[in-house]
Amino acid sequence: MNAIPSVDLKDFVSGDSQRKEKFINEIGTAFEDIGFVALSGHFLSDKLVEELYSEIKKFFNLPQEIKDTYEIDGIGGQRGYTSFGKEHAKGKKEGDLKEFWHFGQYVEDDPKLEAEYPQNVSVNELLNFNIVGKETFKMLEKTAKYVLRALALHLNLDEFYFDKWIKNGNSILRPIHYPPITQEPKNAVRAAAHGDINLITLLMGAHGKGLQVKNHNGDWVDAIARPDQLMINVGDMLSRLTNNTLKSTIHQVVNPPKELWGTSRYSIPFFMHPISEMPLNCLDNCIDEKHPKGFSDITAGEYLNERLIELGLIKG
Ligand SMILES: O=C(O)CCC(=O)C(=O)O
Ligand SMILES: [Fe+2]
After folding, report:
1. Would you say residue 316 lies in a domain?
2. Which of 251, 271, 273 to mutate to test the pocket of ligand 1 (most atoms within 8 A of CB)?
3. 143 Cβ partners below 8 Å, 6+ apart?
4. Does 123 fall in a domain?
5. Could you tell me which residue ranges the Fe2OG dioxygenase domain spans (predicted)?
6. 127-154 and 46-60 helices cross at what angle (nearest 10)?
7. What is the pLDDT, as a whole number, of residue 313?
8. Ligand nearest to the CA of 231
9. Can you tell me which atom of ligand 1 is nearest the CA of 265?
10. Among 68-82, 166-180, 190-204, 233-247, whose mean pLDDT is lowest?
11. Is the CB of residue 206 below 6 angstroms from any atom belonging to ligand 1?
């Protein structure tokens, strides 16, 4: 049985108030409980998804010397390529068994933010990679915007509460390649147990085994989506903002059984971040006698900085 509830974004955008309400309740309840949903009815077309996988496979198949030219010093892996084994989960020494690429925000009409963010890196060898990456970024950002509108209503906020914080937000699209495993890994897994930093994560590529989510009993449950679904989860920023009303659930990507060591895994999370000035101070309507304020006040920018240091991506 799949423990992760399914929702359909078409309900929310249908124009039918009952279907809209149904979506808000379903996603709100799931995020207060397991912290994950599998979502269909998003804005990615099959053609775009197919092209994206094809471009990503081509990129990770480039010779290592070429990929290395896209690993840029001094930007903490925020754009371009991060090589195998570099990122480790909070509190872990061993690097994850993965390499990845980062597409960042395509800032519109905001010179200050354009100066604040590192520039996107273009792959000269694969022109379509850059185009398809940008289009996917935009479609996932649009999907995430509607999901956050539903969550705002669930939290008794204005429907458009998040809109101004996520416009030109510091979001990241991260195609990940977990290469074939060639020898018994020493205490390393594809992605060690972690919570995501950001507001919400939209994950493409969770339709094979690998991703596991820790439930309230402390058991790991498989999180598998249908091919037409994105896996969506709450990140630590949204958990802080809601004083843990919405749960940022620990998850991991386990190594496959030995007979499948020879296969790669490709997954593509979109980490929805707000602009750095967004306060993550616990919302008043999420604090009461039973739920005292559990987190100190902090902005999204300050919080991100703390977390990137813990991941080994930037120096403190
Ligand atoms: O590869 C996956 O399926 C999940 C990756 C993940 O959890 C992450 O990058 O934060
Ligand atoms: Fe994650």
Report:
1. no
2. 251
3. 9, 39, 42, 43, 44, 202, 230
4. yes
5. 168-274
6. 130
7. 67
8. 1
9. 1
10. 68-82
11. yes
Where does the pLDDT of residue 1 fall: very low under 50, low under 70, confident under 90, or very high at 90 and above? very low
- Within-domain flag for 196: yes
- What mean pLDDT do residues 166-179 have? 97
ipTM associated with this complex: 0.98
Distance set, CA 71 to CA 99, 264, 308 (Å): 11, 21, 17
Distance CA 6, CA 4 (A): 7
Q: Which residue has the CA at smallest separation from atom 8 of ligand 1?
A: 269
CA distances from 283 to 33, 239, 246 (A): 19, 11, 12
Number of folded domains that form the chain: 1
- The CB of 269 under 6 Å from ligand 1? The reply is yes
Q: Is the minimum distance from the CB of 211 to ligand 1 under 6 angstroms?
A: yes
Q: What is the pLDDT of residues 8-34, one digit of tens each?
A: 999 999 999 999 999 999 999 999 999
Cα of 46 from ligand 1 centre, angstroms: 21
Task: For residue 210, give the ligand nearest its CA.
Answer: 1
Q: What is the pTM (predicted TM-score) of this model?
A: 0.96
- Any domain includes 1: no
pLDDT at 277 over 90: yes
Tell how far the Cα of 213 is from the centroid of ligand 1, in angstroms. Answer: 11
Q: Are 54 and 266 within 8 A, CB to CB?
A: no
200 alpha carbon – ligand 1 mean position (Å): 12
For residue 143, the enclosing domain spans 6-310
- Write out the DSSP string of 242-280: TTTSS----EEEPPPPGGGTT--EEEEEEEE---TT-B-
Please report the atom of ligand 1 found closest to the CA of residue 231.
3
Mean pLDDT over all residues of the chain?
Answer: 94
Q: Which atom of ligand 1 is nearest to the CA of 267?
A: 1
CATH code: domain of residue 299: 2.60.120.330
